[in-house]
């Protein structure tokens, strides 16, 4: 899967989980840039992404991402 | 069942028109998602759940401190979720002999309940039991080592059940059974736990929230009382009209085992007080035959309260069954293998629970187990005889048709009633009526056994319970009144409720005569009654005016100095 495709699908998951269709993600987006992306919703996002791509992140990965780009890298590495 | 994301969306909906219930949630792990799931499930059940959530890991402090936010919040229902993970942590640090661990934990839990009940005697505690973690320190041998964690965890669950059997306001939400259903890998996600202190995976939040709401809803008096069965391919395999009695599948024939086991399940429901009715498109005599003659039939005619088999449409037939049983559609479950019939019934009677039975009868039971449609918060001996009572009711209806004059009919019934205050023997049944009665219930104040014991001992209250027996049989305890002294002259009718199965027997007149005479003898001059409207108790909106009470503001007043006994065909036994 193309990196851009992953980013698009991750964006859809963000929109669905956070109930906000205005969300646009780039590699540089961080939690501070997105309303409601707090530590709690982060878990829901992670589980949503896992379910969608049928992958599992390690505890360390979930903890380590600094921005959306790193998250997408983690997904890409598992596909 | 909605999933967590959708339950969470419910929180954005307007719940202000729904019945408010104050609930407190305390846990020893992160419970924010659980709180949202429970609140969202509350909306699904038709409640405005006002949920207060304790800060992380504050169970003991919030309960022990009389000035805590928990006690200030004064919730009706308190939910406590202490996880198996934390239990394992406690076990690891336990100083005494580990064989005493479960008993020690139970003492801690008892202390939590006792403290809660000492602050608010009416509080209902819902305690989540422990999901299994096998640390495999001993392997299978753990089952032989009384000090092993597995041994102590399972023992604690049993001790909790024994404790709950004794304490009426202590309820267990069986989340261990949820883990058994979905499997531990789906129940618990280690990566989420490590990052968030949450021990429940997102996937199980909804099932747990629904299970919790099952208890809360039953505590509110809302639960299913009746199951209506289709026959062909639901109760037995095949079509009786085409295949004939020898060829329908039950017992050893074909896939008969699936239907036999289904019937055993229905029989157990019946034995615990669920009314079983039949609604089938068949010629009646042919439909009845297996119940009377087939050796492998588990269900017999004596198990069926109302039997309707004809060629009319099922919606009308279900309405007919409802008319005879006189219970709400929202307390009835309809089981039918035919999707067309299900949809038709669902569309016409939306209050009815109509499970989407799987296509393969082999899967009926496993599917029905997952739905938890027969939640309850009480069980009494009276439950076991309920079917008999409804059958007798059908006989009464036949007698009634013979009399043109209602008084003659009532006279002919030879009715007697036992009138008693609340005792330790009748309190369980009184509590059950208090939770079950929705229609003939003037103020719908729900009391538990513990509440009733307090009322029975109170010098300011007078309690009455009534049974009703006639020549056809005994209805058991069917009516409850609680009078509260408001002043030297006046008694307020705090509770007046009656089972709908004794409507139209003149029980209202007999009841009023009894309490009015009692009050007169005690020197009171007035009885005051109140009516609190609910979506279900419209039938008693004019109750007090019909009985000759005069309006008094929002209430109703009866002057006892002028009271003359009303016509009644019931004798005191």
TrEMBL record, chain A:
The chain positions of domain Carrier read 1-79
An example Pfam family from this entry, by short name, is PP-binding
Coiled-coil features, chain-numbered ranges: none
Q: What InterPro entries is this protein classified in? A: ACP-like_sf, PP-bd_ACP
Report the leader peptide range: none
Its name, as the record gives it, is: Acyl carrier protein
Question: Which organism's genome codes for this protein?
Answer: Mucilaginibacter gilvus
UniProtKB/TrEMBL annotation, chain B:
Pfam families tied to this protein:
FkbH_N
Domain of life assignment: Bacteria
Its transmembrane ranges are none
Q: Which SUPFAM superfamilies match?
A: HAD-like
Q: Where is the BF1531-like N-terminal domain?
A: 22-216
Q: Which GO terms describe its molecular function?
A: hydrolase activity, acting on ester bonds
Report what the protein is called. HAD-IIIC family phosphatase
Give the originating organism: Mucilaginibacter gilvus
């Amino acid at each position: 899967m193309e990196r851009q495709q992953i980013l698009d699908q991750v964006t859809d998951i963000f929109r669905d989980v956070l109930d906000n269709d205005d969300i646009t993600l780039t590699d540089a987006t961080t939690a501070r840039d997105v309303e409601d992306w707090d530590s709690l919703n982060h878990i829901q996002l992670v589980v949503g992404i896992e379910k969608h791509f049928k992958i599992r992140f390690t505890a360390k990965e979930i903890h380590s991402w600094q921005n959306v780009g790193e998250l997408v890298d983690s997904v890409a590495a598992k596909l | 069942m909605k999933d967590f994301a959708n339950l969470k969306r419910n929180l954005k909906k307007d719940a202000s028109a729904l019945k408010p219930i104050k609930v407190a949630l305390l846990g020893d792990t992160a419970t924010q998602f659980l709180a949202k799931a429970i609140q969202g499930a509350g909306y699904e059940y038709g409640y405005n759940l006002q949920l207060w959530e304790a800060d992380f890991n504050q169970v003991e402090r919030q309960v022990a401190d009389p000035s805590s936010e928990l006690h200030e919040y004064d919730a009706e229902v308190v939910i406590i979720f202490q996880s198996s993970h934390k239990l394992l942590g406690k076990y690891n640090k336990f100083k005494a002999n580990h064989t005493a661990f479960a008993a020690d934990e139970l003492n801690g839990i008892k202390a939590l309940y006792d403290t809660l009940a000492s602050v608010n005697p009416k509080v209902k505690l819902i305690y989540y039991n422990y999901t299994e973690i096998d640390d495999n320190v001993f392997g299978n041998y753990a089952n032989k080592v009384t000090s092993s964690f597995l041994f102590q965890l399972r023992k604690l669950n049993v001790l909790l059940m024994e404790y709950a059997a004794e304490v009426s306001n202590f309820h267990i939400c069986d989340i261990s059974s949820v883990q058994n259903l979905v499997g531990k890998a789906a129940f618990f996600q280690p990566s989420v736990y490590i990052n968030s202190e949450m021990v429940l995976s997102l996937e199980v939040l909804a099932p747990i929230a629904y299970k919790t709401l099952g208890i809360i809803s039953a505590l509110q008096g809302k639960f299913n009382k009746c199951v209506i069965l289709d026959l062909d391919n639901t109760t037995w395999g095949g079509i009786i009209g085409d295949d004939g009695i020898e060829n329908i599948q039950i017992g050893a024939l074909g896939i008969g085992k699936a239907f036999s086991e289904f019937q055993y399940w229905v029989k157990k429901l019946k034995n615990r007080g669920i009314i079983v009715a039949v609604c089938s498109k068949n010629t009646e005599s042919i439909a009845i035959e297996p119940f009377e003659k087939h050796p492998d039939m588990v269900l017999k005619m004596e198990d069926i309260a109302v039997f309707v088999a004809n060629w009319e449409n099922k919606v009308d037939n279900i309405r007919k069954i409802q008319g005879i049983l006189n219970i709400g559609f929202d307390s009835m479950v309809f089981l039918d293998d035919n999707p067309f019939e299900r949809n038709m019934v669902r569309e016409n009677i939306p209050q009815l629970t109509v499970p989407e039975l799987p296509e393969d009868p082999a899967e009926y039971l496993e599917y029905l187990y997952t739905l938890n449609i027969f939640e309850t918060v009480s069980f009494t001996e009276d439950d076991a005889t309920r079917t008999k009572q409804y059958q007798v009711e059908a006989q009464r209806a036949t007698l009634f048709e013979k009399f043109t004059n209602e008084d003659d009919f009532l006279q002919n019934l030879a009715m007697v009633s036992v009138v008693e205050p609340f005792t330790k023997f009748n309190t369980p049944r009184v509590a059950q009526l208090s939770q079950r009665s929705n229609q003939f219930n003037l103020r719908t104040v729900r009391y538990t056994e513990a509440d009733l014991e307090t009322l029975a001992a109170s010098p300011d209250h007078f309690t009455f319970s009534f049974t009703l027996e006639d020549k056809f049989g005994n209805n058991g305890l069917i009516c409850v009144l609680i009078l509260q002294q408001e002043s030297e002259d006046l008694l307020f009718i705090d509770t007046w409720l009656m089972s709908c199965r004794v409507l139209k027997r003149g029980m209202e007149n007999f009841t009023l005569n009894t309490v009015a005479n009692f009050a007169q003898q005690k020197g009171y001059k007035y009885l005051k009654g109140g009516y609190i409207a609910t979506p279900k108790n419209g039938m008693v909106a004019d109750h007090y005016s019909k009985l000759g009470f005069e309006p008094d503001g929002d209430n109703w007043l009866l002057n006892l100095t002028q009271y003359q006994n009303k016509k009644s065909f019931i004798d005191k036994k």
